[in-house]
Design goal:
Layout lengths: L11 E3 L2 E3 L10 H5 L13 H11 L9 H68 L2 H12 L5 H16 L2 E4 L11 E9 L6 E7 L1 E4 L2 E4 L1 E8 L15 H4 L1
Parallel strand pairs: 4-8
Antiparallel strand pairs: 1-2, 3-6, 5-8, 6-7
């Protein structure tokens, strides 16, 4: 038999076994068996042994610990649950980007067409204004041309005439109409019409007034005399070679 241990003393020795005063269970281990009674303060409340026991009680057992698989599942569950809303938001942003890009391209095309239309209208207005101003100068140019043909253009008057013609030339005024030109009803005005064996097609044989144009706009057609080719009965001779009525009788 062993004597009971007083409060505050070491573990109780029963049947040569040390009994833990806290748990009431035999203490196991090489160190516990060799430790003399009363030399350890493990059984005393507040002693070093009691602190170790409390720390062991507060420690989590391996069964209570959260496994890495559970933690990983909890961690990965967040992004997996949030992925559908993020995909919907990305699709919405992509559709908005496509829509805004289409709007920008349409606006750019409209602006390009607007600039072309404005430039074309501006050129048309300028051409009309220049043509209107030059039309008023055509009689003056006709007088200068007649004076030059008759040799009356000399001295200071010739210098003024040359400067005026150079100025209207810079504005795009072009004079046309020469003898031998093919007759074109779009740019020529026929004042007389005759037949001639010297031509193979309708030809301007006389220029009464030169024509003037600005670009493709005709300010005044050239006034000319037109000669048409003469042909015989078989379309190969001349009108003079036609048989007369007396020869047929």
């Amino acid at each position: 038999m062993t004597a009971p241990e007083e409060p505050g003393m070491g573990p109780v020795i029963r049947d040569n076994r040390r009994i833990d005063p806290v748990t009431g269970q035999p203490r196991r281990g090489r160190h516990a068996a060799s430790q003399p009674a009363g030399t350890s303060g493990a059984g005393r409340p507040g002693g070093p042994g009691s602190r170790h026991i409390k720390a062991d009680e507060n420690a989590r057992t391996p069964e209570e610990e959260v496994s890495p698989t559970e933690g990983g599942a909890t961690t990965t569950a967040g992004p997996a649950a949030a992925s559908p809303p993020e995909s919907a938001a990305a699709s919405q942003l992509q559709s908005q980007l496509v829509e805004r890009t289409a709007d920008l391209q349409r606006l750019q095309a409209e602006y390009a067409n607007y600039r072309k239309r404005v430039d074309r209208d501006r050129a048309t207005v300028r051409e009309q204004a220049v043509a209107s101003a030059l039309s008023e100068l055509l009689p003056v140019l006709d007088a200068i041309g007649q004076a030059r043909e008759h040799g009356e253009l000399s001295g200071g008057f010739k210098s003024v005439a040359d400067s005026l013609q150079a100025a209207v030339g810079k504005l795009g005024l072009v004079s046309y109409g020469q003898r031998g030109d093919a007759f074109d009803p779009k740019i020529h005005e026929a004042l007389t019409h005759t037949y001639s064996p010297d031509v193979d097609e309708d030809t301007c044989v006389e220029i009464f007034q030169p024509g003037y144009k600005v670009g493709e706009r005709i300010l005044r057609p050239a006034r000319v005399a037109v000669a048409a080719p003469t042909t015989g009965p078989d379309d190969s001779g001349e009108a003079a070679g036609w048989p007369s009525g007396e020869e047929n009788n």
